[in-house]
Amino acid sequence: MIKVGERLPAATLQEFVEVEGNGCSVGPNSFDVHKAAAGKTIALFGLPGAFTPTCSAKHVPGYVARAAELKAAGVDEIWCVSVNDAHVMGAWGRDQKAGGKVRMMADGSAAFAQATGLTLDLTASGMGVRSRRYSMLLKDGVVKSLNVEAPGKFEVSDADTLLRQAREIA
After folding, report:
1. Whole-number percent of the chain with pLDDT over 70
2. What is the pTM of this model?
3. Which residues are catalytic?
4. Domains recognised in the chain with CATH numbers
5. In 3D, which of 7, 43, 46, 54 has the Cα closest to residue 167?
6. Exposed e or buried b per residue across 16-26, where buried means at least 16 C-beta atoms within 10 angstroms of its C-beta
7. Which band of pLDDT confidence, cut at 50, 70 and 90, is reported for residue 59?
């Protein structure tokens, strides 16, 4: 599992872009994690799946609600990463009113989750290999804080915890 002080692994995530511009076309666009995180402070949180109960009722809404406070604490971008395709993540972002606040990043094949060692096998529940629930604060692609949930829990990866950590690290 990735640790504090380590650099994010080389990986590609996808995001469904709603408006063409800045070199991105409408629809799914691929982003190199290292390039996208370079020179930025990123609040990144991962979760098992789009439109699932805890993820939709608590995890994403907390980051949407705290987006301005996270940015005031020095966070440049907030990324939500889930093992779903970019179309699903785009639809979920619209449903959660995340536009302009949280980037809904797709890890369709769980390659990023596997590279970070943050996978969760939910095959018995019909969901396959997914991401564990976690949050991390990154500076220039290096992990400055990491909060990994125990299976079935939502206690340490919330927006309030990461906001406190961002204020301490800033």
Report:
1. 94
2. 0.92
3. 55
4. 12-169 (3.40.30.10)
5. 43
6. bbeeeeeeeee
7. very high
